[in-house]
Design goal:
CATH architecture: 6 Propeller
Number of helices: 1
Order of helices and strands: EEEEEEEEEEEEEEEEEEEH
Structural class: mainly beta
CATH superfamily: DNA gyrase/topoisomerase IV, subunit A, C-terminal
Helix content: under 10%
CATH class: Mainly Beta
Strand content: 25-35%
Distance between the termini: 37 Å
Number of domains: 1
Number of strands: 19
Radius of gyration: 23 Å
Largest sheet: 4 strands, antiparallel
Shape: globular
């Protein structure tokens, strides 16, 4: 997929034509579309603007997208808000939707939806704040509520703190935390003790003026990649393996150096899928009547004809600077 310079791919969902796509916005609304209603495009196309698909208000943006095959009573949606509330609702309550969307949960004035996932009673969740605190608890402790109801307290916020993000616990993975000034680290889920919901939590990142506030957390696999975007539109992608593992109270190392005056605004974890082979692109170019590119030009004294094909390939330069280790 081709993107604009200030944009990045945040989520990739595999669907069939009759899958339902549930798109949740920061204002606590949900839009329901059949997969075939999303315009089809080529692999390298930029796609359609979301405002041409959903009737969003000017200050509304999509924060989560979930694919479902059917709506059942034994499946639950888990939602977390910026002000530290959590709500679980049976998926079946979202089966029918209007063109203009409908309310997914009741938000207080000034609050917004930051996290939405399908999860079971047996799952655990970690809710992290911008100030570097996190609480881990069992989702079965959260009583399901109706679609139009508000949430209950997930974490106790102090000194004007706010929720940065949340993640479903996966013992086979690690938890990555990223800060606004480009610091990051991985830590083991086992370092986060399970408590009752509503507590202040434990330290998940040593936040300081140098690191900046926590902007997000995620469960990651060693083979994943992570893509950062700053508030000035700069985007970089690195391997999760480049981010070291430290204790939950550490400050991490520099994983990106934002330009002076800018900060990391968001990041996305991407599966490190195999890239398409260049030969496939060359075949497409040939069909379009474009000259074929080659990585090498061969010369031979015995050749009777000279090749009319040449190629210049530009390799992306990789930043080889060692990250600063500030724990």
């Amino acid at each position: 997929m081709t993107t604009k310079e200030e944009d990045l791919v945040e989520n990739v969902v595999a669907v069939d034509s009759h899958s339902y796509l549930m798109m949740f916005t920061n204002l606590g609304r949900v839009y329901l579309k059949k997969a075939y209603e999303i315009p089809e495009a080529s692999r390298t196309a930029k796609g359609s603007n979301i405002v041409n698909i959903l009737e969003l208000t000017p200050d509304e943006n999509v924060t989560a997208m979930i694919s479902v095959q059917s709506f059942t009573e034994d499946c639950f949606l888990t939602m977390v808000t910026r002000r530290g509330e959590i709500k679980r609702t049976p998926l079946i309550e979202y089966e029918y939707s209007r063109k203009a969307g409908k309310k997914a949960l009741d938000l207080e004035e000034g609050d917004e939806l930051v996290f939405t996932r399908i999860a079971s009673d047996d799952d655990e969740i970690i809710v992290a704040t911008r100030g570097g605190y996190a609480v881990r608890f069992q989702l079965g402790d959260v009583t399901p509520r109706s679609r139009t109801a508000g949430g209950v307290r997930a974490i106790r916020l102090v000194n004007g703190d706010a929720v940065a993000d949340a993640a479903i616990v996966d013992p086979t993975k690690k938890l990555v935390t990223i800060t606004a000034n480009g610091y990051g680290k991985q830590s083991e889920f086992s370092e986060y003790p399970s408590h009752n919901r509503g507590g202040k939590g434990v330290r998940c990142h040593n936040v300081s003026d140098k690191t900046g506030n926590v902007v997000g957390i995620a469960a990651v696999d060693p083979t994943d990649d992570i893509m950062f975007i700053t508030d000035d539109g700069t985007v970089i992608r690195i391997s999760i393996a480049e981010i070291p593992v430290y204790s939950r109270t550490a400050g991490g190392v520099i994983v990106m150096r934002p330009a002076e005056g800018s900060e990391i605004a968001n990041f996305a974890v991407l599966s490190n899928e195999e890239e398409p082979e260049e030969s496939e692109e060359s075949e497409e170019s040939d069909e379009a009547g474009e000259p074929k590119e080659s990585d090498k030009t061969e010369e031979s004294d015995e050749a009777e004809e000279e090749s009319d094909e040449s190629d210049e390939s530009d390799d992306n330069e990789k930043d080889d600077e060692d990250p600063d280790n500030d724990i």
